[in-house]
Amino acid sequence: MVQNPYISIVIPVHNEQEVLEELYARLTGALDKLGKPYEIILTNDGSTDQSGQMLRDLHHRRPDQIRVIEFNGNYGQHMAIMAGFERVRGQIVITMDADLQNPPEEIGKLVAAMEAGHDVVNTYRENRQDSWWRLQVSKWHNKIRAWMMPKLKMQDEGCMLRAYSRNIVDLMASTGESSTFIPALALTYASRPTEVGVAHAERSAGTSSYNFYKLIRYNFDLVTGFSVFPLQVFTMIGLLISMCSFIFVTFLMLRRLIVGPEVEGVFTLFAIMFFLLGIVLFGLGVVGEYVGRIYQEVRKRPRFVVRHVLERPAAAPAADFNPAAVAEAG
């Protein structure tokens, strides 16, 4: 039987064969230095390269510490993390990407913050090593998100290196939502969240699996999952346009009675009509996003399908303990 770990690391993996060996070496080295029992859960999210075989090899090197979840297809980063959440054994659960842009050596900062009594530790990237346009997009996106959802206190929502207490993770895993945004979901349950700065590095190998379409879907999951702000905006726009339209129609009727019929301005009216139709169609698209998510939830289909799990049986569950109490005892 495997000793119950104190720390669980959950990592989604999708076509990361170029970095897995370095990830293994640096991550195990950083965790060994902490001197606390740990486990690493790696979810293979439908990789089409050699990542699956490499993950199996890593498990055989450290079968007591490395566990591998194999999906039968590609279900996305957040579902890969959720699959890990459903199987974690540790009291402190840390998520991170496999691309090493957030150095594993920073994990100690998150553990220290958790042992100080926080139940969610969010992070922000210091000295980001990204292109200028990506930095600007991220900057404005964070500002817009803060304006639309002021209750979600996140300085940098794009950094996946985060830590959660076990009870927060259990709550998130129990929701059964088919699409969600994990950092925001955690904040809805947290009572003592905090943020710490972590280092950031350029991707050393491979390419990002987030293309333009996936980035759009990622933001739709965040906005529609935690706010009705878009619906409220279009309600107000609809009211404003209705009032303006009523005033404009009244003006045209009075003008026809006073001046008489005329053909001038026909193309202007067409331009106004097309503009209003564009707003209507865009609004229908926003409503469709919410309806589509409702449809996904009511079908109750599995969020993901696990092909198999490589792991050793766990020891009998120990009594729950508080990370802060462990720190004080140390």
TrEMBL record:
Which UniProt key words apply to this protein?
Cell membrane, Glycosyltransferase, Lipopolysaccharide biosynthesis, Membrane, Transferase, Transmembrane, Transmembrane helix
- Which Pfam families does the entry mention? Glycos_transf_2
InterPro entries recorded for this chain? Glyco_trans_2-like, Glycosyltransferase_2, Nucleotide-diphossugar_trans
Q: Which GO terms describe its cellular component?
A: plasma membrane
Q: Which GO terms describe its biological process?
A: lipopolysaccharide biosynthetic process
Q: Which residues form the Glycosyltransferase 2-like domain?
A: 8-168
CDD domains, per this entry? DPM1_like_bac
Q: Which domain of life is it from?
A: Bacteria
GO MF annotation list: undecaprenyl-phosphate 4-deoxy-4-formamido-L-arabinose transferase activity
Question: Record's SUPFAM superfamilies?
Answer: Nucleotide-diphospho-sugar transferases
Question: Which residue spans traverse the membrane?
Answer: 233-254, 266-291
The name under which this protein is listed is Undecaprenyl-phosphate 4-deoxy-4-formamido-L-arabinose transferase
